[in-house]
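Model it.
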Amino acid sequence: MKINFSFFFIFLSFFLFFLSEIVFPFIEAINFDVFENVKKINYLRKERNNYQKEIKKIKRLVRLKKEEFFLIKKEEEEDEEYYCVIDLFSQRLYLKKGARIVQEFRISGGSGKILTGPFGKKWQFVTPKGVLRVLRKIKDPIWYKPDWAFIEEKKPIPPKNSPLRRVKGMLGEYALDLGGGILIHGTPYEHLLGRPVSHGCIRVEKEGIKMLYDSLKLGAKVYIYGK
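Modeled.
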């Protein structure tokens, strides 16, 4: 008995097609619970909407927190006082607000030299180290020339009230008094800035001393360290 394989394969293919495309979908359709699945779909939609609402709330909270953070940061910066740090090693002055460096300037600090006057009196020109404060702010300061300045110039020392002792322009347009005869002030010798050549005061360029005068309040701290 001959078996017609072509007919067999055709019949098998048709049978499989009938099962996959008609019987099984029909069974699934019968078992498909429309109402239950509609309920599931509605539930998932509600959950999705809830998640979206929560995400919007979280985004809004994050935005508000960011605004609050920047507002607080701005207020803190506005509340912070200016102060300055003087590095005698590098001959630099840093105007600071909080941890931020606002501006940097070259300076001239004390030379460290020793001058010997009559009767063995000595002066050493050093800038004091430590934490000082701005005690006075002076506009158009006049330098009261001390005895050592005349000795250094090899000139006779005039009386205490002599007009020879009052010198205009030597301290620049502004000065900050740190006490003990030590000032932060301007200088006509800006070409020497960056080198320790002063008699103990801190010399700063014209634009720098103006900015320091405007920024530092009375009582502002001045940190000085180095050699």
